[in-house]
Specification:
By secondary structure, the chain is an all-alpha fold. The chain has helices at about 5-30, 30-40, 50-65, 85-120, 125-145, 150-160, 180-210. About 15% of the residues are buried.
């Protein structure tokens, strides 16, 4: 195989990884059902004097701000917010927008690369890299199992350059209805999606190998 072909496939595989990771993040961001379930499962209403419907209105308003680039002001009807708390949500919004951008930029090249693999009968090339890819979430899940508190802290230290994420319930009561366990469930959902996407690529590659 030509060296240029080797690098083309390596870049294509990297592009696929970025697409699947950003897609899993996007789906997790939009997984409203996790919070709906957790309101009851984690007894979140015990920490706020609101009905479930009213709490979800606030949640939807917060997520609309985080997910929609044209919404630039964050004001929740039932939760006052400090300047640091507001600044943190602006930082989160930037990460969400970055994820959407990565997904949009890599999606078409990834689809074209998959078409190339199908046409040239080279889906088998995905088996080894995606097997390795499936190992990473397992390691992260193990770290979560050892102690989610430390995992959560490390996550914020990696992705945020300040300590605005350290909310004070007295000034930012929104933290009372966004418990750590909810974020743990979001991480678990993300890891399940990643493993599923990677597993599908492995299955397709193995099936092609058997048929040829």
């Amino acid at each position: 195989m030509k060296k240029s072909q080797v690098w083309f496939e390596r870049l294509g595989i990297c592009c696929l990884f970025l697409t699947f990771i950003s897609l899993a993040i996007a789906l997790t961001i939009n997984a409203r059902f996790i919070y709906v379930i957790d309101i009851d499962y984690l007894n979140i209403l015990d920490f706020v004097h609101l009905s479930k419907e009213r709490l979800l209105e606030n949640y939807d308003q917060l997520m609309a701000f985080l997910k929609r680039p044209w919404i630039t002001e964050l004001n929740l009807p039932d939760f006052p917010m400090s300047s640091n708390g507001r600044a943190h949500f602006y930082d989160v919004k930037k990460l969400f927008m970055l994820d959407y951008a990565v997904l949009l930029v890599t999606l078409v090249p990834s689809v074209m690369f998959l078409h190339h693999l199908k046409k040239s009968i080279r889906f088998w090339r995905l088996v080894r890299p995606f097997k390795w890819g499936m190992a990473a979430p397992v390691v992260l899940l193990a770290l979560m199992a050892v102690g989610f508190d430390q995992f959560f802290i490390t996550f914020h230290e990696v992705f945020f350059t300040n300590e605005d994420w350290l909310f004070d319930p007295a000034t930012d009561p929104i933290i009372n209805v966004l418990p750590e366990q909810y974020f743990m469930h979001c991480f678990l959902f993300f890891f399940v999606l990643i493993e599923l996407f990677f597993w599908i690529m492995i299955l397709i590659g193995k099936k092609e190998s058997k048929n040829h």
